[in-house]
């Protein structure tokens, strides 16, 4: 039987949607409730999961979105990391509200998202689910926050969704970036803030897609009140493309762009000043009035635009870019080049934020597997039972809560391509054993399956831990460790890179394109040890770009928390793993584990309590 609050919700939705009462529902939500009831003929009281596509259907739907997903992934991963602690999942959906990319926050919240099928393959269009973040954002092509009981169907009232639309380089709706939380301790204002972060991420994804689409053109940023737009033009200074906001700012239409209209009809600037790489220039309108500062980026390949066929791309491009001018990195990329098409497992080692994920993607892109899937899993972000199901897959009905049609698992999804296991040092020992078996036998047994599935994968794994000592102490399987490190690549911390200044300059250009760094700000950045490496540098400069006045980032704009001394290796994590393994070996018996570890029982008990280590087997 529906609870009283459930029937209240349904009564309120029906009275607002039928114009009986306007109560306090905001007009966008009220209009969407009306569409849900009258146009889509939905019932707010109906319960049940959303429509979920099969894996074959998802593949079919995802195909035209492949490039978008590829270009959006790093940004979405970043968003997921920033919002993970607040319990948000992050998704990218196509223009029909089918989720095609999902990152779950981990821990307890993940199970709720899985139970409610808030994941890849689910359809959240307004026509199916009524008012909800994704469906309503895409119906209106505007960012929206749909907070708990603003959903049309009562059952979605445990969720709050903040969603920003994504427009393609031609200004058409391409999909949306969604974040959803089931936490009831977050206020509407907190979600509003998360919506602002999501909108910024969507703008950056649009920027990356636009720059990739018009990579053979010159690209100018056009300043506007709600953030800058992007305009692409050729060597003859004819406009060849404009993003949605640049179209709105300058009054450009498809017809005008197709006619090859002259850039000077819209904006003017000193072209000589912009002949270098990524220069800042002063823009003027056609009538000479000032329009603000613009960053001009040259074509990525010096080639006239009229020849529209893409040049052959150097498959090592991304690896070379990541190596930059650091001799150690250049050497590592050279060594990798020699084995790139041999399916040698690669183990990446480096502190958080040094670019392990980007590097793994670049290895995949350079290899002969580039046309097949790149599948990533963060072993630290999920409980053991979920890693098991996610990685190895399961048959239909293998456990309570399993998808009706089973799941292939990430290893099988990576067949023919690359599997990236991030934070492999955090993989529970039982799963290490299963993974080792997969690598040895080249086949995987999904949970509940009667026969194995043959797989051909290249494995790249990454860790910030020292697996060697962990393997010596029995906290990581030594045989797996030697299998993983077919080749080990150490990615240096930002503070140790020889090309550190170039990286700071490059990230400043990307994150704060219309600002310059004052000399004090520069000195602070150059002296700071950046324990969070490239990711921290990006976030610091992104924030500084927002707070800077008059286009100058000063030291006051830099949020650099005091950081004294060396960056310590993760000793506590290594100790925790050693204790957990000793307990496992001794069947959870503390006295025996303490003897093996040469600790007193009392000390071991204290450590178990302080580190919240599970003792039961
Ligand atoms: N060489 C680089 N130049 C510019 N930005 C970079 C570079 N390498 C990494 N980044 C940026 O740093 C951020 C973190 O990168 P990435 O996620 O690959 O790091 P990671 O080592 O895998 O982090 P973690 O260990 O926390 O998972 C991303 O925003 C990425 O764009």
From TrEMBL:
What's the protein called, per UniProt? ATPase AAA
Q: Which CDD domains match?
A: AAA (cd00009)
Q: Which InterPro entries match?
A: AAA+_ATPase (IPR003593), AAA_lid_NorR (IPR058031), GAF (IPR003018), GAF-like_dom_sf (IPR029016), Homeodomain-like_sf (IPR009057), HTH_Fis (IPR002197), P-loop_NTPase (IPR027417), Sigma_54_int (IPR002078)
Q: Keyword DNA-binding, does the record have it?
A: yes
Nucleotide-binding: present as a keyword of the record?
A: yes
Show the GO MF annotations.
Answer: ATP binding; sequence-specific DNA binding
**Superkingdom of the organism of origin:** Bacteria
Biological process, per Gene Ontology: phosphorelay signal transduction system; regulation of DNA-templated transcription
- Start and end residues of each Sigma-54 factor interaction domain: 322-546
| Keywords attached to this entry | Activator, ATP-binding, DNA-binding, Nucleotide-binding, Transcription, Transcription regulation, Two-component regulatory system
Query: Which Pfam families does the annotation name?
Result: AAA_lid_14 (PF25601), GAF (PF01590), HTH_8 (PF02954), Sigma54_activat (PF00158)
Give the matching SUPFAM superfamilies.
GAF domain-like, Homeodomain-like, P-loop containing nucleoside triphosphate hydrolases
Ranges for region Disordered: 288-310
């Amino acid at each position: 039987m529906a609870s009283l609050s459930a029937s209240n919700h349904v009564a309120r939705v029906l009275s607002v949607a039928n114009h009986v009462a306007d109560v306090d529902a905001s007009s966008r939500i009220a209009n969407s409730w009306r569409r849900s009831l009258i146009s889509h003929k939905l019932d707010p009281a109906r319960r049940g999961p959303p429509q979920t596509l099969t894996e074959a259907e998802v593949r079919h739907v995802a195909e035209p979105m492949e490039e978008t997903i590829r270009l959006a992934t790093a940004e979405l991963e970043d968003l997921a990391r920033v919002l993970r602690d607040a319990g948000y999942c992050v998704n990218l959906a196509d223009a029909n509200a089918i989720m095609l990319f999902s990152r779950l926050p981990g821990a307890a919240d993940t199970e709720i998202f899985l139970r409610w099928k808030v994941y890849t393959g689910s359809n959240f269009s307004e026509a199916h689910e009524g008012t909800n973040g994704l469906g309503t954002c895409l119906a209106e092509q505007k960012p929206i926050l749909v907070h708990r009981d603003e959903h049309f169907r009562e059952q979605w009232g445990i969720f709050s969704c903040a969603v920003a639309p994504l427009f393609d380089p031609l200004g058409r709706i391409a999909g949306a970036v969604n974040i959803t939380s089931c936490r009831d301790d977050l206020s509407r204002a907190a979600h509003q803030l998360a919506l602002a972060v999501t909108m910024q991420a969507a703008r950056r994804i649009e920027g990356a897609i636009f720059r990739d689409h018009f990579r053979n053109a010159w690209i100018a940023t056009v300043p506007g009140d709600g953030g800058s737009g992007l305009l692409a033009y050729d060597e003859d200074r004819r406009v060849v493309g404009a993003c949605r906001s640049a179209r709105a700012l300058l009054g450009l239409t498809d017809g005008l762009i197709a006619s090859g209209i002259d850039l000077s009809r819209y904006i003017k600037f000193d072209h000589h000043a912009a002949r270098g790489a990524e220069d800042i220039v002063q823009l003027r309108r056609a009538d000479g009035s000032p329009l603000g500062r613009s960053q001009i980026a040259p074509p990525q390949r010096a080639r006239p635009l009229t020849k529209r066929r893409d040049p052959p791309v150097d498959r090592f491009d991304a690896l070379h870019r990541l190596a930059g001018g650091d001799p150690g990195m250049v050497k590592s990329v050279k060594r990798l080049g020699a084995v790139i098409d041999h399916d040698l497992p690669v183990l990446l080692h480096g502190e958080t934020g040094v670019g392990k994920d980007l590097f793994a993607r670049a290895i995949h892109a350079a290899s002969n597997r580039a046309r097949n899937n790149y599948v990533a899993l963060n072993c630290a972000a999920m409980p053991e039972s979920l890693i098991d199901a996610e990685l190895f897959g399961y048959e239909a009905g293998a456990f309570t809560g399993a998808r009706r049609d089973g799941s292939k698992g990430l290893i099988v999804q990576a067949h023919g391509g690359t599997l990236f296991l991030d934070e492999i040092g955090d993989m529970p020992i039982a799963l290490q054993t299963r993974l080792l078996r997969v690598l040895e036998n080249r086949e995987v047994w999904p949970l509940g399956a009667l026969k194995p599935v043959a797989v051909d994968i290249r494995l790249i794994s990454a860790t910030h831990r020292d697996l060697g000592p962990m393997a010596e102490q029995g906290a990581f399987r030594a045989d797996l460790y030697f299998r993983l490190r077919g080749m080990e690549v150490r990615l240096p911390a930002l503070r140790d890179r020889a090309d550190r200044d170039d990286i700071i300059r490059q990230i400043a250009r990307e994150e704060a394109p219309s600002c310059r760094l004052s000399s004090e700000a520069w000195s602070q950045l150059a002296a700071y040890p950046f324990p969070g490496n490239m990711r921290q540098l990006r976030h610091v400069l992104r924030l500084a770009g927002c707070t800077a006045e008059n286009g100058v980032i000063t030291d006051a704009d830099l949020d650099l928390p005091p950081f004294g001394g060396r960056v310590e290796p993760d000793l506590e994590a290594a100790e925790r793993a050693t204790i957990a393994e000793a307990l496992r070996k001794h069947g959870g018996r503390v006295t025996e584990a303490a003897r093996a570890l040469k600790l007193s029982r009392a000390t071991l008990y204290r450590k178990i309590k302080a580190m919240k280590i599970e003792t039961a087997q």
